[in-house]
Design a protein that fits this description.
single chain, alpha+beta, 2 domains, five-stranded mixed β-sheet, three-stranded mixed β-sheet, 1 helix, 11 strands, 26% strand
Length: 225
């Protein structure tokens, strides 16, 4: 009887051990399965993260490209502006303030003043109006009348090129006249910036006259014909 019980007990123990081993095996497999199952979402998430930076880099490159285009346009605009600056003053009509003047006293034709005009440094311009506007004082009696002699139209002034005009302050044979120490000259009647020039001596003014601009000083001797 005892032998049978011992044998049955041994079988029960073996069965219990088998169940325990089976349970342990199932438990051991579960983490592996979970790990395998979880690896796919993790890999997918990792792939998703990798895609996002790539898209960001693409946008950044596009923005960088746009920035490059903007800089290029700005550079072109600066170059164009610089080009315009280099051409400033070329082909324009001379204004009085574009010119430097010199006045000398001459003895020909009973005495007159020779005015030499020269473009200021860096300026190229044209004397489009042939006769300058000249006056002694602000009254009409001091306004010089053009005599129409000499002249070239237009005269280009640049560098060392000069133009001349001659002013005779007195054309009458009387002893009368008004004395002036300065003469006002401008390239046109409506020039907003006339120049007031100091005369080398005091002028007695009575019915003054002025010649046209000329490149030959011999043509700037004022003579009433």
């Amino acid at each position: 009887m005892r032998s049978r019980l011992a044998a049955r007990s041994a079988r029960l123990v073996l069965a219990a051990a088998a169940v325990t081993a089976l349970a342990a095996t199932s438990t051991a497999c579960s983490p592996d399965d979970a790990e395998d199952t979880g690896s796919s979402p993790a890999a997918s998430a990792s792939a998703g993260k990798t895609d996002s930076p790539s898209a960001g880099e693409s946008v950044s490159a596009s923005a960088s490209g746009s920035g490059g285009s903007s800089d290029s346009g700005s550079s072109d605009a600066k170059t164009e502006a610089s080009g315009d600056g280099d051409k400033s003053g070329y082909g324009q009509s001379c204004g009085t303030n574009d010119l430097d003047f010199k006045v000398t006293s001459e003895t020909q034709a009973g005495g007159y003043y020779l005015v030499t005009a020269k473009a200021k440094s860096g300026i190229t311009c044209y004397l489009d109006v042939n006769t300058p506007s000249v006056s002694f004082g602000s009254g009409d009696e001091g306004l010089a009348s053009p005599v129409g002699q000499g002249g070239e139209d237009p005269i280009k002034l640049t560098g060392s090129a000069v133009a001349y005009t001659g002013i005779s302050p007195k054309t009458t044979n009387t002893d009368g006249g008004v004395e002036f120490e300065n003469v006002i000259i401008s390239v046109t009647n409506d020039d907003p910036n006339p120049a007031e020039l100091k005369l080398p001596d005091t002028a007695t003014v009575d019915k003054p006259i002025v010649t046209n601009w000329a490149t030959d000083r011999a043509e700037a001797v004022p003579v009433i014909v």
